[in-house]
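Quick review question:
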């Protein structure tokens, strides 16, 4: 049984009054939703706050979910909208920059320590929110262009153009931080 089918069954259980089943939905999607929120707002604490509000909203609105799209698509759309609303509301976000030295010796050490994930997250934090969002949805969440379009509200052409620009931006950031080490990856 795939995730969409599990979600559909779990949602029916919640709609039937089995509120404890909602925890299963949260557990199934919280990591991807958190990663998505972090990529947009660039602040872990704010992303956590946003997710709490999103999951409350999802619980309240779950009865109106009509299965016209997958639950994950619906959820990610709510996460993205809430993140953008927060970005508009907050003038200056608290940012905790990951300290990564640009000298090649430290970059090689970082990669050798299997901390590539931290480097990628650092790079995503340096990118424009739209670009980081598209990369996370397309590559990390493995969504199709149509699903990314539905979640973001962007046109298909904007998704494709942003994805192209995001790839270039990611490569430039990684090259500037890792230099020759990026070629070994």
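Suggested answer, residue by residue:
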């Amino acid at each position: 049984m795939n995730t969409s089918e599990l979600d559909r069954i779990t949602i029916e259980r919640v709609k039937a009054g089995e509120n404890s089943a909602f925890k299963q939905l949260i557990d199934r999607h919280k990591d991807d939703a958190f990663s998505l929120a972090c990529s947009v707002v660039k602040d872990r604490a704010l992303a956590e706050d946003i997710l709490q509000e999103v999951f409350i909203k999802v619980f309240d609105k779950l009865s109106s979910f009509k299965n016209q799209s997958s639950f994950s698509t619906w959820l990610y759309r709510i996460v993205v909208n809430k993140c953008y609303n927060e970005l508009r509301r907050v003038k200056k976000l608290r940012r905790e920059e990951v300290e990564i030295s640009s000298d090649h010796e430290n970059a090689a050490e970082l990669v050798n320590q299997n901390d590539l994930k931290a480097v990628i997250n650092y790079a995503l934090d340096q990118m424009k929110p739209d670009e980081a969002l598209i990369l996370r949805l397309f590559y990390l969440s493995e969504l199709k262009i149509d699903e990314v379009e539905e979640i973001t509200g962007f046109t298909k052409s904007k998704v494709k153009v942003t994805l192209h620009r995001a790839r270039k931006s990611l490569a430039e950031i990684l090259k500037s931080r890792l230099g020759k080490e990026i070629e070994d990856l």
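Why it works: Residues 91-104, 110-114 have pLDDT under 50 and may be disordered. The longest helix spans residues 156-178.
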